[in-house]
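Q: Two folds, back to back.
A: First:
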Amino acid sequence: MRTLKYAILGLISREPMTGYDITREFNSNSLANFWYAKHSQVYPELSRLTEEGLATCQVVIRGKRLEAKLYTITDKGRAELLEWLMECDEVPPTPKDVFRLRVYFSDLMTRQELRGHLQDQLEKHRRKCRYLTDIMEKLYNSSAPPVGTAACGDFMVLEGAVLRENAYIQWLVNCISRIPDESSETADEAGADTVSPK
């Protein structure tokens, strides 16, 4: 399935856009949290959409002399987009996570090395969570917009991203809590070397 096809149709269903506008949307704070595409992917897909009669292209002037191609969804394109929106997907395979793979083989690390890895990831995910939360606060004051608006869809996806990061953070905290700290390890070693008086 050409998922990019439907992502672009969705964008131009809201308003006519140029290839530059579409690429910028894919790199925005909203879409980039769950879907992105490079300009080298966007422009060939736009050509296919026009060939298939799903979008029209009109040359317009941007600025004084700069020509740009403005893409608009057709009735056929809107019908295909709505059909795709109504499809029910199976749960997708679990995405690959290199860090989780390292944790899987953490028996080859020292406790200190493992703790360092976990704490490093914890700080990074906390920063990402704060970043996403700040976006929600800035754009929506952490309150969901009315259902049926484009803003509501954006809010729901952002909310899902925040919950995902919070779950990852909790998992990291749980992992770290299971690693004995150095003071307890030292105490255990000292106790093992102590000879009880008879």
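A: Second:
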Amino acid sequence: MFDGGIAGIGVDLCSVSRMERAMAKEHFAARVFTQRERDDLASKGKAWAQSAAAMFAAKEAAAKALGTGFASGVMPWLIEVIHQPSGAPGICLHGAALERLSAVGGARMHVSLSHEGDTAIAFVVLEARTGGAQKDGKDGTQKNGM
């Protein structure tokens, strides 16, 4: 449920086979996924590559919703894909990603993940704080509301 307006959106696709190749590289998983995410992936059995691709797509989509992509200190390991007790995915931000959320007037992120065949997709909506000033992300000036 939304309390505020939309402060940002992001979408990303990731190839499952590309993720399988990347995860075969020695340090890729540690540079991209948190320990909690790596533990979650280890529990997925045969579906680990689809899950990893969806998680990576979610990280990219979240970075886009924040308005930076993977730049300005917002890095993949600072955007964590979590799962609610219901199984629904969520986003937990850390460090510069969490700071950016505040800077753009964000309250929380909503994420949807899906995969079919060799493709995973993630869509992220960044919910705005209600009644708060927001930086527009271009020149750092404040604007009220959405």
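Q: And?
A: Residues 110 and 122 are 10 Å apart (CA to CA).
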